[in-house]
Design a protein that fits this description.
Layout lengths: L5 E4 L7 E10 L4 H14 L4 E12 L1 H16 L3 E5 L3 H10 L12
Helix pairs in contact: 1-2
C-alpha cells in the first residue's frame, strides 16, 4: 500500500459486527488493495455488518472513493452492510461533493 495507508480489523463480534479502520492516504496507488481487502473481509469472516472507521484518513481521491463504493457493493452482494463511520474532513468533503452519504450509511453531511 502507499504511504501509510492501512486497513486494520477487529475480531467479529457475536452480533456479526466487523470493525475496520483506515489510516493515512487512500488514493489510486492503494485503493484497489483496500477495496479487495474490505470485499474479502465481508466475504470470508461471517460478519453481517462491516463498519469502516475513516477518521484517520488524511487524503482520499475520487478513484479511492469509487473503490469504497465497489467494496460496499461487493459486501452487499454477500448480505453484509458496509458503512463508513467517523469521516475525517477530507472524507466528509469528498462525500459531500459526490452526494454518497446514503450509499455509505451516513446522515446527510453539512
Amino acid at each position: 500500500m502507499s504511504r501509510n495507508t492501512l486497513v486494520a480489523y477487529e475480531p467479529v463480534t457475536s452480533d456479526g459486527l466487523l470493525a475496520a479502520a483506515l489510516d493515512g492516504d487512500l488514493d489510486l496507488d492503494c485503493a484497489d488493495e483496500v477495496r479487495d481487502s474490505l470485499a474479502s473481509a465481508a466475504r470470508g469472516t461471517g460478519c453481517r455488518y462491516l463498519h469502516v472507521d475513516v477518521s484517520r484518513l488524511t487524503f482520499i481521491d475520487s478513484y479511492a472513493l469509487g473503490a469504497l463504493v465497489s467494496a460496499r457493493n461487493s459486501a452487499a452482494a454477500e448480505g453484509v452492510t458496509l458503512t463508513l463511520t467517523n469521516p475525517s474532513q477530507p472524507v466528509r468533503k469528498a462525500i459531500q461533493v459526490t452526494g454518497l452519504a446514503d450509499v455509505f450509511g451516513l446522515p446527510p453531511l453539512a
